[in-house]
Amino acid sequence: MDLMNNSIENVLAEFFKSTDFKKIEIIQSLWSGYGEIARYRFTSPELIQKFGIRQFIVKHVSPPRQVCHPRGWSTSVSHQRKVDSYKVEVNFYKTFAEQCDAQCRVPTFIGEHRFIENGNPCQLILMSDLDDQGFPIRATNLTVQQTKLCIRWLAHFHAKFINSSTDHKHDGLWTIGSYWHLATRLEEWQAMPSSKLKESASKIDKALNKCKYKTIIHGDAKVANFCFTPNYSDVAAVDFQYVGSGTGVKDLIYLIGSCLSETECKNNFTLLVNDYFDCLTHALGLYQPMLDANLVVIEWQELVDLAWADFERFLVGWAPDHKKRNQFSQMITNRALASI
Known about the structure:
five-stranded antiparallel β-sheet
């Protein structure tokens, strides 16, 4: 066993006060070489009974000494954002995850442990394994009907945590949810060529952030962060590094753009947006019966195109050749710019 895994095994043994577990597989590396995610299994009935699960996930966060971003954004700002994102994720699991129900299912938080590994500060985040809980399917793209399943999850998640205070902040989460918002992406904004979108970036950002009705948004609601049942009848979500305050339509537009092709977006965008607001209205009635759902819908409907343009602004600076930058995306962005 190599030194890295030996260190993790020892830390886990200390955490569980037992060695009755084994590593099954590495699931994936973390973005930019910041560690790995692995699957483990309890090997004793006692631990299975204690935690109520057979398998668990270990997210091993180990920031590299030399950062190597796949698109070249290896700056101190980028590094600090990633480091902070793992702290935010733990805060979400500790404080908010247990409020999520079967309509917006997330992994169960087991715990975290910080330790020094080869002189570097590292962190383990432990959670239940959604694969073993009935959600083993991952996808790179979805049908329209399958996308609606994720939209339903988003609507219930947003309704669960909505708050109508303009200055409400969720302790321990990002003040502004999503990884692409302007305040943390000024380097990318500066890299943009001159355009109306670049000139309007601040106005778009302010319009999104000053909305009265805010919730906790997922902040990275792409198709890869959803886990499905084998027959695509239900869905759960993972990866809560960029959760924070905001309007739910930021998650909505990001999801649609990640699930569907340009043609599918063009043919189904209005349908899916309407489906989101129908689901949101229902979920608000379920979770927030004292809140006027119509007021939330009216405000957020006005922000849909702006949210799309906001993400387009990020892409223009971060990865101008990205496949999501297509004619449909430009059309929605132009529509948003014309509304300012």
